[in-house]
Amino acid sequence: MFTLRFDMRAPDVGADRVELYATALEMAAWCEDRGALMAILSEHHGSADGYLPSPTVLAAAMAARTSRLPIAVMVTILPLHDPIQLAEDMCVIDILSRGRVSYVAGVGYRPEEYELYGVDFSRRGELADSKLPLLLAARSGEEFVHEGRLHRVTPAPHTPGGPSIAWGGGSVAAARRAGRHGIDFIAQRGGDQLREEYLASARSAGHEPGVASFPDDMPTAVFVADDPDRAWDERHPYLMHDVTAYADWNRGAPASASMSGARTIDELRQQNSSHRVLTPVEARELDRPRRDAASCTVDRRATARDRLAVSAHRHRRRDRRRLLTPGSRPGEDQTGSKVSARSRRSFFETLPSSAVGSSSRK
């Protein structure tokens, strides 16, 4: 089991952008029958290397090229978007994908992006608090009243209640925001404090807490090659661009699982943490705990990571047949039985914590 992440960076040493985007779609189509749990699409703006600024467009294209692969937009920077327009995009993509695209929203962390949009970076939390409830209401396709005006986004989504939206971040404010609005929390770093803040905030607001995913000790960027030494030699300019670019953007910020402070390729190899190149045998061994967990029965002694892995395994065999089969109507399974919004498994409940927890900082 593995995940794919696409940020579509195209530095001077990289591929032509047209070829890069075409290859990303080919990779997604090829991987959906070969164990991929999901494809993650990231969002940033104004980056010199062309970092993906519009993940919903790529998500739509990727959904059209695949039939089963779940796709996660992680993270969409909510204060920079109009929530009604974003909800419209989500509903259309939900129809195109038959409910396979989910979202993690956040506030971002780069002032340059806010300057590009003419938005006050210091108000990002305030803007998130005002836009998130509007987005959550609008994505359902149902009528609702906001500031005395009647709203309804059309067309209605394929998924009952609308596509899954979680909140990502690494602060107490982020954990509280997710809990207060009754949505899942995808953390960029671990910590009992954030978990407790999320649980307390959800319960205080009258919500049943959802999934709270925190990074584990798994690497977040893995490449598989028959000859790792050769692969390191061939790919080190691209790996170091990824490492140094994120490090420069996050200078002075608390560490997260996906980050590395390495400044040379030798340092990155010696760290053997966030970025790794493995042989096929090593990759299978790294994934063994999840594959073993997926073949057992969940009990209370299982770790949270194992429970998520088992859920992912079952999701691929059963939930996709129920919710994503061509010809089924919104809110019905293959037999025509009604599927309530409450019974829908959270998208992020189906995934290993290493797959999602570290990507919220990207």
Characterization of this structure:
The structure is a single chain. The protein is α/β, with parallel strands linked by helices. The chain is about 40% helix and about 15% strand. It is built from 12 helices and 11 strands. The longest helix has 22 residues, at about 230-250. The radius of gyration is 20 Å and the shape is globular. The model is unreliable at about 295-345 and about 350-360 (pLDDT under 50).
Biggest sheet descriptor:
7 strands, parallel
Helix content: 40-55%
Number of strands: 11
Average per-residue pLDDT, rounded, comes to 82
Overall geometry: globular
Spans of at least 5 consecutive residues whose pLDDT stays below 50 are 293-345, 352-358
The secondary-structure element order is EHEHEHEHHEEEHEHEEHHEHHH
Topology (elements, then pairings):
Layout: E1 2-6, H1 17-31, E2 36-41, H2 55-65, E3 71-77, H3 83-97, E4 101-106, H4 111-117, H5 124-138, E5 144-146, E6 149-151, E7 165-169, H6 172-180, E8 185-187, H7 192-204, E9 212-213, E10 221-224, H8 228-249, H9 265-271, E11 275-278, H10 280-293, H11 304-323, H12 353-356
Parallel strand pairs: 1-2, 2-3, 3-4, 4-7, 7-8, 8-9, 10-11
Antiparallel strand pairs: 5-6
